[in-house]
Amino acid sequence: MDAIFLDFDGVIRHWRTEAVREAEAELGCPAGCLFQCAFDRQRLIPAITGRVTHECWQSKVRQALAADWGEDAASRLVSAWQAATWDLDHALLSDIRAKRPDRPIVLVTNATSSLGADLERCGLGGYFDSVVNSSEIGVAKPDAGFFEHALARVGVRADRSLFVDDSRTNVAAARDLNFQSIHFEDRATAWPAIVEILDRG
């Protein structure tokens, strides 16, 4: 493999959402209502393609929640969302780097304008050989244009590239373009598949 393309959330970064769930329960809101609102395509797509900022996206989510549950509930839910923490799989990154130290590791993520700051907070600001952020290039996975941009960024072919993502849709789209693709559900099942592909050379 000439390059390794990794998704961020769900592969490297794993969000802790307990505080959001607790806030929903305390407020009498349906479980999952915040993320259902936030990831509604009408609000999400503009944020991950750079048409609105991260802050604008969260503001629109708060407004939508307020329309359904009131201003106080909306503010508390968004505050819980903003305060959410995460776990990072440093071991996965280290193991991949150790397995193929001479190959670029590229972060390929559907993210908002907050990605750069998030990477700094994670201590990963300078870790990746390249970062492809959908909100910076104006196109998001699973659009073929995203993958084509990522390949051009590092000058490699899809059939010589490994792609790892937690979205089956994104994995299928990459496979259609001839990437060696792995659907990440958990490390225990994904790592052997990653090793098998990397061992091919």
How are the elements arranged and paired?
Blueprint: E1 3-6, E2 13-15, H1 18-27, H2 33-38, H3 41-48, H4 54-69, H5 71-82, E3 86-88, H6 90-99, E4 105-109, H7 115-122, E5 130-133, H8 134-137, H9 144-154, E6 161-165, H10 168-176, E7 180-183, H11 187-198
Parallel strand pairs: 1-4, 1-6, 4-5, 6-7
Antiparallel strand pairs: 2-3
Explain what this protein looks like in three dimensions.
This protein has 201 residues and is α/β, with parallel strands linked by helices. It has two domains: 3-14 and 87-198, Rossmann fold, CATH 3.40.50.1000; 17-82, no CATH class. The chain contains eleven helices and seven strands. The strands form two sheets. Strands 5-4-1-6-7 form a five-stranded parallel β-sheet, sandwiched between helices. Strands 2-3 form a two-stranded antiparallel sheet. It starts with a strand and ends with a helix.
